[in-house]
Amino acid sequence: MSNTMLQVDSLSMRFGGLLAVDGVAFDVKEREIFAIIGPNGAGKTTVFNCISGFYRPSTGRIALQGQDLAGLGSHSVAQHGLVRTFQNVRLFKHMTALENLLVAQHRHLSTNLVSGLFKTRAYRESERKALDNALHWLDYMGLREFANREAGNLAYGHQRRLEIARCMVTQPRVLMLDEPAAGLNPQEKKDLQGLIEQLRQQYGVAVLLIEHDMSLVMGVSERILVMEHGRPIALGTPEAIRSDERVIKAYLGEE
Ligand SMILES: Nc1ncnc2c1ncn2[C@@H]1O[C@H](COP(=O)(O)OP(=O)(O)OP(=O)(O)O)[C@@H](O)[C@H]1O
């Protein structure tokens, strides 16, 4: 389909004797908000790790706008426009909030040693742009006042927002969020839902989300894939998923 952003086919991942992901297939459209849900150990994070280049899948195809990604490392995958956050926030805790956003851009753009050494005009210009971009995202996330504070000393909710900002400074096409609501208070969860919708609307990103918080998932997602024991068991709109017997039994019924 022409507006498919991310395509995942026949994805499997084996760890020794354990088939952690088994025949997962789905696609994410341009600007779509798509969630993967399922009980603990269902294989959601493993799917994320395969897509984002942290694992090389045992089998399957992963393509971003038709371009094959399977087997590329996480750095290359990010350079293709697919970036992620982690279940447990991973920031450079001893760098300031601002530095985290600058480093993300340096790691993303291929730095040229010669222009860096001689601080050419083009180099200075790109440094200035990176700084403007970082400051924009600090403002956008309501973190400007913490620009010079060490990331590890920020409140947890702020660290989560900074992690999303760190993804956004690279102007991704797909933003992958691994349990972004974990550890947030009810107000922060509400703000997160607004933020996800706003990022899609203003920056045109597709969002792929793993989340246990059902009200966030049901409120924000256009389509949901449900996994159980590594396998996909349902895929559909929130309404369809909510009333799917297998899903109720496998997952929602647990709560
Ligand atoms: N690196 C690994 N080596 C071996 N087994 C792994 C590895 N990573 C995950 N697993 C196993 O694969 C299965 C799927 O785990 P995964 O973390 O993908 O599930 P999940 O759906 O993300 O769970 P949760 O909701 O608890 O985060 C689990 O049985 C897990 O123990």
Automatic annotation (TrEMBL):
InterPro entries reported in the protein's UniProt record: AAA+_ATPase, ABC_AA/LPS_Transport, ABC_transporter-like_ATP-bd, BCA_ABC_TP_C, P-loop_NTPase
Protein name: High-affinity branched-chain amino acid ABC transporter ATP-binding protein LivG
Family recorded in the similarity comment: Belongs to the ABC transporter superfamily.
Top-level taxonomic group: Bacteria
Entries under CDD domains matching the protein: ABC_Mj1267_LivG_branched
Biological process terms in GO annotation: D-alanine transmembrane transport; L-alanine transport; L-isoleucine import across plasma membrane; L-valine import across plasma membrane
GO-annotated molecular function: ATP binding; ATP hydrolysis activity; L-isoleucine transmembrane transporter activity; L-phenylalanine transmembrane transporter activity; L-valine transmembrane transporter activity
Keywords: Amino-acid transport, ATP-binding, Cell membrane, Membrane, Nucleotide-binding, Transport
UniProt domain ABC transporter: residue ranges: 6-254
A cellular-component GO term for this protein: plasma membrane
Origin species: Paenacidovorax monticola
Keyword Transferase in record: no
Pfam families: ABC_tran, BCA_ABC_TP_C
